[in-house]
Amino acid sequence: MSTARRALILVDVQQEYFSGPLEIQFPPHAESLPRITAAIDAAVAAGVPVAVVQHTAGEGAPVFNPATTGFDVHPEIARRQRPEWKSITKQYGSVFAGTDLLDWLQEHDVNTVTLVGYMTNNCILASAAQSETLGLEAEVLSDATGAINITNDAGSADARTLHGTLMALLNSNFAAVSTTEVWTEALAAGESLPKDNLPSSATRGANS
Fold first, then answer.
1. Residue 1 lies in a domain
2. Domain, as residue range, for 189
3. How many structural domains are present in the chain?
4. pLDDT digit string (tens) for 33-87?
5. What is the CATH number of the domain that holds 142?
6. CA torsion, points 106, 49, 145, 88, in degrees to nearest 10?
7. b/e sequence 119-153, b meaning 16+ C-beta within 10 Å
8. Is 82 within the bounds of a domain?
9. Spatial separation of the C-alpha atoms in residues 205 and 95, rounded to whole Å
């Protein structure tokens, strides 16, 4: 496999996702948070650049209000944070939209972004999809991300189904999906993670 020059992107690991209506449901945050911190520790040990991203909906907003504690990164992230990490505040789903993340990645000669954090069904999906348009490879760690239950006028989906479906969708085209353990092994070897492609996924789906 080709050499992966990675950056670890911590997507919205904020207090807003640990209680209330946006609380991560699957994998539960009690399981995904330790996987996120394990990825951080592995990245730091390997000298991989790290960016920590926080979402803002603006002052006065009911969620992701920078004047409230819900905006804060989780204490497990805050206590690991280092001065050399890139800090970004975003207003859109993708970590690239309206930010200077791409410039920072280019300065560090990064060709692969590893996405961990929340939510699978919003910012992880949007960021992985945009990576393709920017000439970047994307990786998503399935046990270091998480989804919520959703219901709206178009239908509903429970978090387990949503997360599993999106992992399969991402791996079919937009991102290489793996567990944190498998990613850590690839990181140590300097290798890219394998991912499927749409024709192969479609063929396998048709034959299942």
1. no
2. 6-206
3. 1
4. 999 999 999 999 999 999 999 999 999 999 999 999 999 999 999 999 999 999 9
5. 3.40.50.850
6. -70
7. bbbbbbbbbbbbbeeeebbbbbbbbbbbbbbbeee
8. yes
9. 31
Q: Per the domain annotation, does 55 fall within a domain?
A: yes
Tokens 């207090």, residue located: 15
- What is the SS3 assignment for 41? helix
Q: Using CA atoms, how far apart are residues 179 and 120, in angstroms rounded to an integer?
A: 14
Helices (H), the chain: 29-46, 75-78, 101-107, 125-133, 159-169, 180-189, 198-206
Give the C-alpha separation, 11 to 9, whole Å. Answer: 6
The residues near 127 (Cβ < 8 Å, ≥ 6 apart) are 9, 11, 93, 94, 95, 96, 113, 115, 138
With CA atoms as reference, report the closest residue to 171 among 206, 143, 140, 208. 140
Token pair in block for residue 180: 């944190």
* Residue 29 falls inside a structural domain: yes
Between the alpha carbon of residue 29 and those of residues 18, 138, 145, 161, the distances in Å are 7, 22, 8, 16
Contacts of 47 (CB under 8 A, 6+ apart): none
pTM strictly above 0.90: yes
Q: Are 159 and 146 in contact (CB under 8 A)?
A: yes
